[in-house]
Amino acid sequence: MLTLLASAAVTAEQAHVHGSGEVNVAVDEEEVLVELRLTAADAFGFEHAPGDERQHRHVQRVAELLADPARLFTLSPAAECVARASDVDVPWLHDDDNSDPHTRSSGKAHGPAETAAARDHHDEEEHRDVHAEYHFDCGQPKRLRAIDVRVFERLPSVQRLRAQFVTAQRQGVVALTPDYHRLDL
């Protein structure tokens, strides 16, 4: 299970495309691990640190949504899966004083003569991502046939999810969209 997630993490770090994200699913006996990666722009509508109280509240509301796997994923009912845990890494959630330089603008303009290092640092600051992991326990894991990915309903700026999955029987990669959001396992 860790191999799938490790390779997915490398892929996620290489690409930052607005409107797109990743879902990785690993089924290991009774346990199902679902990983979700999105750009902050798709999750929140912006990639900068919240600038006012309204934006702070918005980040909190989205973080609460992301922490509730039942609102984002529906596993085959016959599999009797129950969400056991979720872990959501949301930029700025606990950054009350904005002291982390990666969560606020550097205030420096980068012109044509900027160095590659400065450009890369600027890109790191501007391109924020959200990462979440969800653990499910299934009473009838052999009956797990599909996962309905409802991320598109909740976060409409997400238009495509690259979904990787691995089970004891097979593995694969598919593209999910608002019109095709069922991941057949």
Summarize the structure.
The chain is α+β, with helices and mostly antiparallel strands and 185 residues long. The protein has helices at 2-14, 40-44, 53-66, 116-126, 151-154; strands at 20-28, 31-39, 73-75, 81-89, 129-138, 146-149, 160-166, 171-176, 182-184. The protein has one domain (2-95, 123-184).
How would you name the oligomeric state of the polypeptide chains in this document?
single chain
Return the average pLDDT rounded to an integer: 81
Strand fraction: 25-35%
Low-confidence stretches: 6-13, 96-124
Shape: globular
Terminus-to-terminus distance: 15 Å
Order of SSEs:
HEEHHEEHEEHEEE
Biggest sheet layout: 6 strands, mixed
Helix coverage percent of residues? 25-40%
Which sequence of strands runs across the widest sheet? Answer: 4-5-2-1-7-8
Instruction: Please give the domain count.
Output: 1
Query: What is the strand tally?
Result: 9
Number of helical elements? 5
What gyration radius follows from the Cα positions, in whole Å? 18 Å
Output the structural class.
alpha+beta
List the helices and strands and how they pair.
Blueprint: H1 2-14, E1 20-28, E2 31-39, H2 40-44, H3 53-66, E3 73-75, E4 81-89, H4 116-126, E5 129-138, E6 146-149, H5 151-154, E7 160-166, E8 171-176, E9 182-184
Parallel strand pairs: 1-7
Antiparallel strand pairs: 1-2, 2-5, 3-6, 4-5, 6-9, 7-8
